[in-house]
Amino acid sequence: MKNTGGSRKAKRRAGEHAATAVEDGMVVGLGTGSTAAHAIRAIGDKIRDGLDVEGVPTSFQSRQLAIEEEIPVVDLDEVPGVDLAIDGADQIADGQLIKGGGGAHAREKVVDATADRFLVVADPSKRAETLDSPVPVETLPAARPVVEREIRELGGEPSLRSAERKDGPVVTDNGNVVLDCEFGPIETPDTLAEQLSTLPGVVEHGLFVDLADEIHVGTADDVTVERL
Ligand SMILES: O=C[C@H](O)[C@H](O)[C@H](O)COP(=O)(O)O
């Protein structure tokens, strides 16, 4: 989607609104992407005002931003748990999500799923009646042909993710490739999520089923919160 001024404002409102849920002493999961970045910056502001929290980044990008924002950064194995995670989404339908537009969904899923409370932040363009965006599937590079075959067996059409300004495929923070898999409308995301999870060679897919607790959608001048 084109990042219009309106959508930028909406993302900012959503991110900043979700950041108001961050309280002193919390361990906070720091999501990836342009909307979660607004939440990270807002947490940085709160830290400069005296808030004491630790952040668990979900990607190289969110780690760098957290460091710039003076948020103490920790890994999952250094904390007893995550109190709250704030993360974006590429598509939202009926509380279920597709994530991984930035290829960060594997770490995001671990952090978001382990959090006591997972807040999704988005602009209105992310809402859909039915999930129908391509599903990002992070795959071991050596397993690509096998996974592609299995995806086709499931009725999907995989396409290796590449970037405009990089020769060769996009490589994730974990050293893997991403297959963007077109399935058309996904009527039963839970079934597809289970099927994808069982494929050997798949590290993680971008279907986040029954993980979100709240969805904060910003508009140019307001935020709506859906509790699930
Ligand atoms: O891998 C990336 C993540 O799942 C992002 O949270 C997702 O792509 C949404 O990003 P944005 O807020 O920039 O639309």
TrEMBL record:
This protein's record includes keyword Ligase:
no
* Protein name, as recorded: Ribose-5-phosphate isomerase A
> Is Iron included in the keywords of this UniProt record?
no
Q: In which pathway does it act?
A: Carbohydrate degradation; pentose phosphate pathway; D-ribose 5-phosphate from D-ribulose 5-phosphate (non-oxidative stage): step 1/1
Q: According to its UniProt entry, what is the function of this protein?
A: Catalyzes the reversible conversion of ribose-5-phosphate to ribulose 5-phosphate.
GO CC, sorted alphabetically, is: cytosol
What is one GO biological process annotated to this record? pentose-phosphate shunt, non-oxidative branch
Q: Which reactions fall under this protein's catalytic activity?
A: aldehydo-D-ribose 5-phosphate = D-ribulose 5-phosphate
